[in-house]
TrEMBL record:
This is beta-N-acetylhexosaminidase. It comes from uncultured Microbacterium sp. Gene3D superfamilies: Chitobiase/beta-hexosaminidase domain 2-like, Glycosidases. The keyword Hydrolase applies. Belongs to the glycosyl hydrolase 20 family. The active site is at E313 (proton donor).
Length: 513
């Protein structure tokens, strides 16, 4: 905990990220966390708290049926909300539901600090609830495959920042990553490749079920994405009859030459990072059967309400064909009782399934009519997920010299740029009512393992968490860059203790323990 002078008084500034709705720091003595402090409440929340305190402090707090100094309980309130009261004698966490308890526990763990006496929690009254219902992170397991251990670790990292959705980008030109029983050749023939000739891999159905279960245990929903009709070169290794030949444009030739990459050839694994050349065959019964098989099998093992069907960068698909295809694909998802999500380009299609959700990945200031395509989802009775690429694409370089990452989204994305934007200020006519939530994607052209993912995602993922959870940018003194810069600095010891290899960007004066 930091102390700073205000009006001559010394006031505490407990650091919570994402910023809570209300935090009042008191002036009485802190609550001392010692090995005999008992915890009572619902078993899952007690376990979460005891595990988190043990990993942070080494203290093994006893669980107690009741009468404990640390009490966790459920009390009616808005979804995912909680109230936390700490004074010298007790810690009381009241939450509306299990998710609220989980988030309150993670707030409490962020408040843990060491003073001369040992571990303490400062005197605070804190009321908190999310701004948006959908708070996502996306992991691209197609450009590079990331296995069960990495995905479960990423779930734990994201959930601790109050994200509640894991979107898995399961298919792309470079590889197919999910077992589909009705189409066994996808994993047999199209999963072995990745960017740069690195090895591939895929999730079995049991792997995927394990991810879904681990996510659920951390109050996260898994959204599977099967990206169609573009980003489908890998399919040509398994079911060539449903794929159009690669569309080799002059732009693609130039890009490939500059990077020294081979051009895509149907039926041969693609290891480059260019986009926009592949397409499924449209208006083709084989393709329609293929899509129904794949989406049906993926939906079957997905308990969550959403299936993402991509729709981005389908430059190899003629526009009218693209529109008809996305209409059919969203209707297929809806027929399975799920809400379709698609990247904003699909808003070009007039007849998407009503209520389809669009994911906007243009810049904070929209270009090229991307905002109009995004607004079409709202006109169709749906909402938008905001993922402005020049703010929350975690795979962008944080500075020009960074070894990992890309720069196409308006150059490097500094921590400040990832923080200084508000979801309701991106697309005209799209305010809080029209916004389903915020999602921070991490594409993995350059990310080969968890260390790379950590180095790219942290600390900018914390800025995205704040856009998704906290009140609007600038709505109070805490929702400012200056406050965030100070608060995020104080997470460094916690992240280090958890083994998170964050990048100590020079924009922040990081706390050392
Ligand atoms: C995207 O970045 N192509 C969604």
């Amino acid at each position: 905990m930091r102390r700073s002078a205000q009006n001559g008084d010394t006031v505490s500034e407990p650091a919570v990220v994402p910023a809570p709705r209300l935090l009042q720091a008191g002036s009485s003595a802190p609550f001392a966390v010692t090995a005999d402090v008992a915890v009572s409440g619902p078993a899952d929340a007690v376990r979460t708290l005891r595990d988190a305190v043990r990993s942070r402090t080494g203290l093994d707090l006893p669980a107690s049926p009741d009468g404990a100094a640390v009490t966790l309980a459920i009390e009616p309130g808005s979804p995912e909300s909680y109230v936390l009261d700490v004074d010298a004698a007790s810690v009381r966490l009241l939450a509306a539901d299990d998710a609220g308890l989980f988030y309150g526990v993670h707030t409490l763990v962020q408040l843990l600090a060491q003073d001369e006496t040992g571990w303490v929690v400062p005197d605070v009254h804190l009321e908190d609830a999310p701004r948006f219902a959908y708070r996502g992170v996306m992991l691209d397991v197609a450009r590079h495959f990331h296995g069960l251990d990495t995905v479960t670790a990423y779930i734990e990292r994201a959930a601790a920042l109050k994200f509640n959705v894991l979107h898995l980008h399961l298919s792309d030109d470079q590889g197919w990553r999910i077992e589909v029983p009705s189409r066994p050749l996808l994993t047999a023939r199209a999963s072995g490749s990745a960017v740069g000739g690195d090895g591939g891999g895929f999730f079995t159905r049991d792997d995927y079920r394990a991810i879904v279960a681990h996510a659920a245990a951390h109050h996260m929903t898994v959204v599977p994405e099967i990206d169609v009709p573009g980003h489908t070169h890998a399919v040509s290794l398994a079911y060539p009859e449903v794929c159009a030949p690669p569309a080799i444009s002059d732009h693609l030739r130039d890009e490939a030459r500059q990077r020294g990459e081979a051009l895509p050839i149907a039926g041969i694994a693609y290891e480059g990072i260019a986009v926009g050349f592949s397409s499924l065959r449209i208006d083709d019964e084989d393709t329609d059967r293929f899509l129904a098989d794949v989406i049906g099998d993926v939906a079957e093992i997905t308990p969550g309400p959403y299936v993402h069907i991509g729709g981005d960068e389908a430059h190899g698909t003629p526009p009218a064909d693209f529109a008809r295809f996305m209409e059919r694909a969203t209707r297929l998802v809806a027929s399975l009782g799920r809400t379709p999500i698609a990247w904003h380009e699909a808003g070009a299609a007039a007849g998407l399934a009503p209520g389809s959700i669009g994911q906007y990945w243009g810049f904070r200031t929209p270009t090229d009519g991307m905002d109009e395509k995004a607004r079409a989802f709202v006109r169709g009775g749906g909402q938008l997920i905001l993922s402005p690429a020049d703010a929350v694409y975690l795979d962008m370089k944080p500075d020009a010299d960074f070894a990992l990452g890309l720069t196409w989204a308006n150059g490097p994305t500094t921590l400040r740029r990832s923080y200084d934007w508000d979801p309701a200020a991106v697309i005209d006519g799209v305010g809080d009512e029209e916004i389903h939530g915020v999602e921070a994607p991490l594409w993995t052209e350059t990310a080969r393992d968890l260390a790379d993912i950590d180095a790219l995602a942290f600390p900018r993922i914390a800025a995205a968490a704040e856009a998704a959870w906290s009140p609007a940018l600038g709505s109070d003194a805490r929702r400012t860059w200056d406050s965030f810069r100070e608060r995020v600095a104080q997470l460094a010891p916690l992240w280090t203790r958890r083994g998170i290899g964050f990048t100590p960007l020079a924009e922040v004066d990081w706390t050392r323990e």
